[in-house]
Amino acid sequence: MVRLTVDLIAKNSNVKPRKEETIAQCLKKITHINFSDKNIDAIEDLSLCKNLSVLYLYDNRISQVNNLNYATNLTHLYLQNNCIPCIENLRSLKKLEKLYLGGNYIAVIEGLEGLEELRELHVESQKLPLGEKLLFDPRTLRSLAKSLSILNISNNNIDDIRDLEMLENLNHLIAVDNQLLYVKDAI
Predict the structure, then answer these.
(1) Is 94 exposed, middle or buried (0-12, 13-18, 19+ CB in 10 A)?
(2) What tens-digit pLDDT sequence spans the chain (187 residues)?
(3) Is 97 exposed, middle or buried, given 0-12, 13-18 or 19+ CB atoms closer than 10 A?
(4) For 42-106, what is the HEC assignment?
(5) Is 124 left (phi over 0), alpha (psi -120 to 50) or beta?
(6) Residue 186 has what pLDDT?
(7) CB–CB of 72/93 below 8 Å?
(8) Sheet of strand 76-78: strand arrangement
(9) Contacts of 7 by beta carbon, 8 Å cutoff, 6+ apart
(10) Among 185, 99, 80, 182, which residue's Cα sits nearest to residue 140?
(11) For residue 120, which of 87, 134, 150, 152 is within the disulfide window of CB 3.0 to 4.6 Å?
(12) Is residue 109 within a helix (H) or strand (E), and if so which, with residue range?
């Protein structure tokens, strides 16, 4: 089991404290963390990384998104190609602008209420049970209605996108490889 911890970050990144600095002080300044394809299966307490704005954790084995409530400055979160079954524990990420969750096991787009800065949502190619399609919670769609401008829902067996009508500022919808029959009047 590989857990993303502040110790792991300190050991495996370019974190080099100056002579008068402690590791903790140095970690507070980090804005970007890239631990993609490192067999990470859990996110531990990273609260020392107060200024973190971009977190790359794609191509890992993460099954639950947690311990990110400290990351109030996070603007970009890359979690594609993990083992995540549901979207949860992201509501404190008020500055989040881009969320990448493609290639997981998510069946319902939910739990994004309150993310008023979210402009991009990528949920393509979910590993759904045979015959299932990606669904959208109406509360989440209402919450994203004014902010979301890019949505990637490709390859999710979706047959109807009329629910997306409420996304007022959506100007780029990527919905290839679905089961859509009538798109003309959908949005």
Answers:
(1) middle
(2) 899 998 899 887 666 777 788 888 888 989 999 999 999 999 999 999 999 999 999 999 999 999 999 899 999 999 999 999 999 999 999 999 999 999 999 999 999 999 999 999 999 999 999 999 999 999 999 999 999 999 999 999 999 899 999 999 999 999 999 988 766 544 4
(3) middle
(4) EECCCCCCCCCCEEECCCCCCCCCCCCCCCCCCCEEECCCCCCCCCCCCCCCCCCCEEECCCCCC
(5) beta
(6) 47
(7) yes
(8) 32-34, 54-56, 76-78, 98-100, 120-122, 150-152, 172-174
(9) none
(10) 99
(11) 150
(12) strand 108-109
For residue 19 the two structure tokens come to: 């002579």
Q: Exposed, middle or buried, 109 (CB in 10 Å: 0-12/13-18/19+)?
A: buried
Answering whether pTM is above 0.90, one says: yes
Q: Are 96 and 73 in contact (CB under 8 A)?
A: no
Question: Tell me, what DSSP letter sits at residue 155?
Answer: S
Inter-residue contact 152 to 121 (CB < 8 Å) = yes
* Tokens matching residue 68: 């990110």
